[in-house]
Design brief:
Strand content: under 5%
Number of domains: 1
Number of strands: 4
Helix content: 55-70%
Largest sheet: 2 strands, parallel
Radius of gyration: 21 Å
Number of helices: 13
Oligomer: single chain
Order of helices and strands: HHHHEHHEHHHHEHHEH
Shape: elongated
Structural class: mainly alpha
Length: about 260
Amino acid sequence: MSDLNQLFTDIVADGVIDSDEVTQIESVIYADGQIDAEEADFMFRLNDAVTGKDNDDGWQALFVRSLTDYVLADETSPGEVDADEANYLIEKIGNDGQVDEAELALLVNITAQATACTDEFNAYVLEALYQAVIADGVIDDDEVAMIKTVIYGSGGGGGEAVDRDEAEFLFKLNDACSGQDNCAGWSALFVEAISSHVLEDDESPNEIDADEAEFLIEAVLADGQVDDVERALLVNIKAKATAIDASLADKMAALGI
C-alpha cells in the first residue's frame, strides 16, 4: 500500500494526470494481471483528486477498464455485480457527493458488460444517468448512446429487454427535457424502447393489455400534456399493436390518434 500512497502523492502533485502517468498507473495496478481491493480503492481516490481537471483521455479509459475488471473478473461472482460489489461501487462513487464523467462512464460500462446486477445497483445507475442528462436540460447524441447502452445492457433490470423501471426512467427523462432542442436520436430511442416494453412482453405479445394501457395513460399524461415524442410513441403503438385495451384506445381517439 505504501507504493500506492507514494504513487498517489506523485501523480496529484500538479493535480492533472498526463499520458505518461496513465501508462505508469497502468503498469503498477496491472503488475500481476488483476485488480485487487487496494488498487480499486486507489483508483477511486485518485479520480476524486483529479475530477474536473484536464486529464489525458487515457485516464478515464483506464479508470473504467480497471474497475470493471475489479467487479466483474472476480472469483466470487464472475460477470455479475453482487450485493457487496454494488454497495462498494455506490459508496465509492458517492464518496465526494457527485457522480463525475469517469464514474458515470464506469456505471454505464458495467451495466453493458455484466450478466446480472442487483436491483439497487440498477436503480442507482438510472438515477445517476438521469441527473447527468438533465443537468443542462437537453439530451444530446452522446447521452442517447449512454441511455441506450444502459437500458439494453445485459446487466440492466430487464437484461437486453426494457423493464418497467427502465420505461418509467425514459418517461421521467422525457418529461424533464420535453420541448427542448433534443437530438433526433432521443425521440427514436424513446419510441423504440417503450414500444418494445409494451409490445414484446411475454404476457400479451403485440397487444396492449389493461395493465399496459394503465401504465401508458399515467406515464403519458403525468405532466399534463402529450408532447411530440409521446404522440409519436402512441402513433407507433397504434400501427404495430394487434389489439389495444379500450381505456387507451379511447384516450388515443380523443387525441386524434
